[in-house]
Here is the input.
Amino acid sequence: MQAKDVMTANVVSVSPEHSVRHVARIVLDHRISGLPVIDDDGRVVGILTEGDLMRRSELGVQALAPVDRQSSTEESNAGAYVKSHSWKVADVMTSDPIKVDEETPLPRIAALMVERGIKRIPVMRGEHLVGIVSRAELLRVLITARSDATAPGDDAIRRSILTRLREDAGINVDELDLTVADGLVHVSGAVSSQSERDAVRVVAEGVRGVKGVFDRLSLA
Here is the structure.
């Protein structure tokens, strides 16, 4: 699946010249946790989130500068002050946000969210915003994902497990004795770590038709 398959197309946005109070009202009214900032030329120039709003001086939050003032710089202190006190979106937003195009695969989007510690990514068609993907959209994919297409029958289940162990988990299946009877998986042999042992179980449990896994593996 790609970004275009899961994105929210009707995106609420604000201008860099809008007020922070205006954004707070939009966040509450639309029950969203963040929104893109778009300039007069239609370019995405930033992202403003409820996390940014929670650091405001109006709330009495003293996150105006790094806790360790001895290692902080005057520049970082001043920047934190501006973000917590300015009324203008342009001063508070995160500039130059990560963006993806419509054809970006979901695994890549998930990886970006994890790597950058972000919760939403604007989706672009050229220079124009066409949607936004949030963590919520990715979680919906988990809920609606179809079961794998493993054919019915014990032999097909066994082949599928061995293939996934070898190709997806990188486990040497030559050291394993794996049988399937009426959907029940019995596996013995030696693995090199507890992580590999866990991977064998997880792979087997994830194959369609498996009713249970009996683990008799030992650590080499």
Remarks:
- Confidence is low (pLDDT under 50) at residues 63-71.
- The chain is about 35% helix and 25% strand.
- The domain at 3-144 is CATH 3.10.580.10 (CBS-domain).
- The chain has two domains: 3-144, 154-219.
